[in-house]
C-alpha cells in the first residue's frame, strides 16, 4: 500500500516534485473574488459567500455576537476547556521567551545607532471552519500576537451551512482574547481583511492556514498587507533506526495522513527490518481509524518508506526534503540533531509524537511546508513585530564620515545624495549654522 524506495532507487526526486501546490489553477477565480469584495464591500462579500459556500449572510450578521460566545461556553465540555487553558498557558510561556527589546548603541564620536521593535497594530487570523473545529489553530495564531503586544486581533472563520460558528472555535477565540470574530471564510475573507469593508476594517497582516483558495488569495494580497507564509499540505518525515518501535512510527505516519489526501507521511530508515515492520503496522492500524479513506489515499499517493545505507544518508534526505515536521526516533537523537538544517519543528525521541506539538507543548504549529523550511521559520512573536532603524549623527561624526559617504554616492551617480552631506560640511567649514550661529 505504501511505496518502498530502496538504496540507489530514484524515488526521492519524484517525492520532491509531487509536493508542489499549484496555485495557478485557481488564480483567475481568486482574482475575481478579490475584485468583487474590494469593489463591493459587505454586499460583495456576502454575495460571494452565498454563491460559493451556500451560506446566506447579511452584513449585519457578519460579526459574531457576545451572546453567541456565551452560548458556546455552554456547549463545550469542562475537560476541553481545562486542556485548552493549559495549552494556552504553555503557548504563551514559550512565545514570551522570544520577545526582544529595542536597543540603542551610543558611540564616542557622537553617533547613536539603534533599533525600535514595535508590534503591529491590527492583524487578522484565518481559522479553517465549516464542519470542522480547529481551536488549536486559534491559539497558535492569536497568542503570539498577544504576546507581541498587538492591540487589535480579528478572526475570520467559515460558518456552517446554517451560518453558525463552531462553539469550540468560538471558545478558543474568547480564551485567546480575540474581540472581533467574523463568520466568513475562503478567498473572500482574505480580501475583506486586506482591503476592508464597511463592517470589517482592514488589517496590516494576515496569518493562518487555509485551502488552496485561501492560500492563493494570501499570495495575491501580499504587498497590500503582509502575510505569514503560503501554507501547503501538511507533512511529516520520520528518521528512525533499528531501535525505533514500528508501531510508534506507523501511528505517527497515520496521524499525519488523516489530515487530508494531500498530506505526506514519509519514513527514512537505515534498517530494512524496521521498514518491513512499519509497512505491516500501517496495514494493521489504518483499518482502525475513523478517517481511513483519507489516510489510505494519503499513504498510497504521497507516503513513502525510504531505505538508506547509513544514518548520514537519512540526515541528507531530511535536509533535502525540509519537512514541516521532523521526528527523530533514533537511539541517540541529540547526536544527529546538529546535522539537521532544514525543518519546521523537530520532535526528539520516541515519546515526542507530532500531536504533542500540534496541541499542547508550546512551540507554534504554524510551520513552513513544501520545502520552505529551507528559508522560512515557524510562526512566532517576530511575525507580529516590525523593526525600525535609528540613526543619530552629531556634527562632528558627519564631518568625520562625510567625505566617505559622498564618495560612495558619487560612485552611484547620485549627486543629490552627495550634496545632502556636502552642504552640511560646507556650513561647518564656513562656521554658519541654520540659525546663522557658529558651527565651530
Automatic annotation (TrEMBL):
<dbReference type="InterPro" id="IPR001692">
    <property type="entry name" value="Histidinol_DH_CS"/>
</dbReference>
<keyword id="KW-0028">Amino-acid biosynthesis</keyword>
<feature type="binding site">
    <location>
        <position position="325"/>
    </location>
    <ligand>
        <name>substrate</name>
    </ligand>
</feature>
<feature type="binding site">
    <location>
        <position position="188"/>
    </location>
    <ligand>
        <name>NAD(+)</name>
    </ligand>
</feature>
<feature type="binding site">
    <location>
        <position position="412"/>
    </location>
    <ligand>
        <name>substrate</name>
    </ligand>
</feature>
<comment type="pathway">
    <text>Amino-acid biosynthesis; L-histidine biosynthesis; L-histidine from 5-phospho-alpha-D-ribose 1-diphosphate: step 9/9.</text>
</comment>
<comment type="function">
    <text>Catalyzes the sequential NAD-dependent oxidations of L-histidinol to L-histidinaldehyde and then to L-histidine.</text>
</comment>
<feature type="binding site">
    <location>
        <position position="259"/>
    </location>
    <ligand>
        <name>Zn(2+)</name>
    </ligand>
</feature>
<feature type="binding site">
    <location>
        <position position="417"/>
    </location>
    <ligand>
        <name>Zn(2+)</name>
    </ligand>
</feature>
<feature type="binding site">
    <location>
        <position position="259"/>
    </location>
    <ligand>
        <name>substrate</name>
    </ligand>
</feature>
<keyword id="KW-0862">Zinc</keyword>
<feature type="binding site">
    <location>
        <position position="126"/>
    </location>
    <ligand>
        <name>NAD(+)</name>
    </ligand>
</feature>
<keyword id="KW-0520">NAD</keyword>
<feature type="binding site">
    <location>
        <position position="358"/>
    </location>
    <ligand>
        <name>Zn(2+)</name>
    </ligand>
</feature>
<feature type="binding site">
    <location>
        <position position="211"/>
    </location>
    <ligand>
        <name>NAD(+)</name>
    </ligand>
</feature>
<dbReference type="GO" id="GO:0008270">
    <property type="term" value="F:zinc ion binding"/>
</dbReference>
<feature type="active site" description="Proton acceptor">
    <location>
        <position position="324"/>
    </location>
</feature>
<dbReference type="InterPro" id="IPR022695">
    <property type="entry name" value="Histidinol_DH_monofunct"/>
</dbReference>
<keyword id="KW-0560">Oxidoreductase</keyword>
<dbReference type="Pfam" id="PF00815">
    <property type="entry name" value="Histidinol_dh"/>
</dbReference>
<feature type="binding site">
    <location>
        <position position="358"/>
    </location>
    <ligand>
        <name>substrate</name>
    </ligand>
</feature>
<dbReference type="GO" id="GO:0004399">
    <property type="term" value="F:histidinol dehydrogenase activity"/>
</dbReference>
<feature type="binding site">
    <location>
        <position position="256"/>
    </location>
    <ligand>
        <name>Zn(2+)</name>
    </ligand>
</feature>
<protein>
    <recommendedName>
        <fullName>Histidinol dehydrogenase</fullName>
        <ecNumber>1.1.1.23</ecNumber>
    </recommendedName>
</protein>
<keyword id="KW-0368">Histidine biosynthesis</keyword>
<dbReference type="InterPro" id="IPR012131">
    <property type="entry name" value="Hstdl_DH"/>
</dbReference>
<feature type="binding site">
    <location>
        <position position="234"/>
    </location>
    <ligand>
        <name>substrate</name>
    </ligand>
</feature>
<dbReference type="InterPro" id="IPR016161">
    <property type="entry name" value="Ald_DH/histidinol_DH"/>
</dbReference>
<keyword id="KW-0479">Metal-binding</keyword>
<dbReference type="GO" id="GO:0000105">
    <property type="term" value="P:L-histidine biosynthetic process"/>
</dbReference>
<feature type="binding site">
    <location>
        <position position="417"/>
    </location>
    <ligand>
        <name>substrate</name>
    </ligand>
</feature>
<dbReference type="GO" id="GO:0005829">
    <property type="term" value="C:cytosol"/>
</dbReference>
<feature type="active site" description="Proton acceptor">
    <location>
        <position position="325"/>
    </location>
</feature>
<comment type="similarity">
    <text>Belongs to the histidinol dehydrogenase family.</text>
</comment>
<dbReference type="GO" id="GO:0051287">
    <property type="term" value="F:NAD binding"/>
</dbReference>
<feature type="binding site">
    <location>
        <position position="256"/>
    </location>
    <ligand>
        <name>substrate</name>
    </ligand>
</feature>
